[in-house]
From TrEMBL:
<dbReference type="GO" id="GO:0003825">
    <property type="term" value="F:alpha,alpha-trehalose-phosphate synthase (UDP-forming) activity"/>
</dbReference>
<dbReference type="InterPro" id="IPR001830">
    <property type="entry name" value="Glyco_trans_20"/>
</dbReference>
<dbReference type="GO" id="GO:0005992">
    <property type="term" value="P:trehalose biosynthetic process"/>
</dbReference>
<protein>
    <submittedName>
        <fullName>Trehalose-6-phosphate synthase</fullName>
    </submittedName>
</protein>
<comment type="similarity">
    <text>Belongs to the glycosyltransferase 20 family.</text>
</comment>
<dbReference type="Pfam" id="PF00982">
    <property type="entry name" value="Glyco_transf_20"/>
</dbReference>
């Protein structure tokens, strides 16, 4: 049976907190590789004077991790540039933040070519290659150019944007044409798949057949929805540790009878943190009974702080939390506890566990694993209420949450009021349905669905013997 080769921008350290790879992707892939005799290939996060393509290889339990160093110019143009200043904002519907600079394009093309060149000698003919996320969309094309006939799949962790937005990207056709060098393309949600379908039919003049067969640019691919799940088993183990239980106790003391609303996010403009704070302010303004009885704990781990838009959102959040706290706080109560650091996953599980409401209100999100973590951390006999943005991929699976429009302060404020007042019976009913989904559609189910779909696509024809 062929090995699984996973390629992503960064390889993760899934069991360590902090560091640059905190994020849903690192968590999910760690679990995927344990199962297979896999190789995980990506950027080391380091830069060197001159790119050499030299690999550093570490063999761990069952999996091999291979990393390559890039140049400083690559970090600026490919990572901070095209990936995080062009594609990330565009794919999260922020064309106002999306920067279109030629040097970014060049950096993106160069690094994808470098990845392909470095990966090539590691490949065996029967390997399956699974490429992850927006940093590496053209990697499939670069591998094909070098004669790779293996089955190659691509999974997009972030949303695929609506056609009219996507068309604002210079060279958008070229990028989609490159997608057609993959055999299988996976999206988080029906919403993303249908946006891609719309582009292929109406902008690329292609066709979409039954069973997810897409044709355009004289080529075809298989596409489908593969919603990512939580590593539920590992998460529940974390929630059962001493560390989690110590945090539950510590938080209960600190609650002193008050109710806690929790948010946990990378500090990113796509997560709707400012809108969330304003909605919470709206709630406080109209619920005098809540003053001193409720507070919002927002853990926001700084992320991508070399990019100006992230420095700006951070400054805005500092200002808005300061303003709200200044206006509402009393000598022994602050309405928002705003924390800019990261916690270990077992600690987080403990903290989630005592929150009456999980407030997950991204403006756009591929999936959002925090919603699933909040559910998994709840005590079955007295679970809290999940409030979830309709613009997170997770909303397609988690209909028993209170689904809200994160752009409407009043709607989110109403949901907070409803959630805090919800009777136990209804909380249990909703939670049981949500938890069944979190258990069933976990990260293993996601991986198995994608990998078996990738194995099922027909192998490309081998080149004629020279
Ligand atoms: C991308 C897509 C998609 C956060 N703070 C801490 C911490 N976290 C962990 C959370 C959660 C993960 O980071 C965040 O995952 P999300 O899914 O919410 O969001 P992104 O990072 O934007 O991930 C997203 C995901 O990829 C997977 O496909 O769901 O839509 O944007 O697990 O708990 N972890 C620790 N300390 C923290 O302070 N240890």
């Amino acid at each position: 049976m062929g090995r699984l080769i996973v390629v992503s921008n960064r390889v993760g350290q899934p069991d360590q907190s902090g560091g640059p790879s905190v994020g849903g992707l690192a968590m999910a892939l760690g679990a995927a590789l344990r199962e297979y005799n896999g190789v995980w290939f990506g950027w080391s996060g380091r830069t060197v004077e001159t790119f050499t393509g030299g690999l550093s290889v570490q063999r761990g339990q069952g999996a091999t991790v291979a990393t390559v160093d890039l140049e400083e110019q690559d970090r600026q143009e490919y990572y901070n540039g095209y990936a995080n200043r062009t594609l990330w904002p565009l794919f999260h519907y922020r064309i106002d933040l999306s920067a279109y600079e030629r040097s970014f394009n060049e950096g993106y093309a160069r690094v994808n070519a470098r990845f392909a060149q470095t990966l090539l000698p590691l490949l065996k003919p029967d390997d399956f290659i699974w490429v992850h996320d927006y940093h590496l969309i053209p990697l499939g094309r670069e591998l094909r150019r070098r004669g790779v006939k293996n089955r190659i799949g691509f999974f997009l962790h972030i949303p695929w944007p609506a056609r009219r937005l996507f068309a604002t990207l210079p060279f958008h056709r070229e990028l989609v044409e490159a997608v057609f060098d993959y055999d299988l393309v996976g999206f988080q949600s029906e919403d993303s798949l249908s946006a891609f379908e719309d582009y292929v039919e109406r902008e690329a003049g292609g066709t979409v057949g039954p069973n997810g067969r897409f044709e355009a640019f004289g080529r075809s691919l298989q596409a489908g929805v593969f919603p990512i799940g939580l590593d539920t088993k590992a998460f529940l183990e974390g929630a059962a540790t001493e560390a989690a239980s110590a945090w539950r106790d510590r938080m209960r003391v600190s609650l002193a009878g008050r109710r806690m609303i929790i948010g946990v996010d990378r500090l990113d403009y796509s997560k709707g943190l400012e809108e969330r704070f304003l909605a919470y302010e709206e709630y406080l303004s109209h619920a005098p009974e809540a003053l001193e009885q409720v507070f919002l704990l927002q853990i926001a781990t700084p992320s991508r702080d070399e990019v100006a838009a992230y420095q700006e959102i951070r400054a805005r959040l500092d200002a808005v939390t300061g303003r709200i706290n200044g206006a509402f706080a009393t000598p022994d109560w602050v309405p928002i506890r705003y924390v800019n650091r990261s916690y270990r996953r077992d600690e987080l599980a403990g903290i989630y566990g005592v929150a009456a409401i999980g407030l997950v209100t991204p403006l756009r999100d591929g999936m959002n694993l925090v919603a699933k973590e909040y559910v998994a951390a709840q005590p079955p006999e007295d679970p809290g209420v999940l409030i979830l943005s309709r613009f997170a991929g997770a909303a397609e699976q988690m209909g028993e949450a209170l689904i809200v429009n994160p752009f409407s302060r009043e709607e989110v404020s109403d949901a907070i009021r409803e959630g805090l007042a919800m009777p136990l019976k209804e909380r249990v009913r909703r939670w049981e349905a949500l938890m069944a989904g979190v258990r069933r559609d976990d990260v293993d189910a996601w991986r198995d669905a994608f990998v078996s779909a990738l194995r099922a696509v027909p192998q490309r024809e081998l080149p004629p013997a020279a």
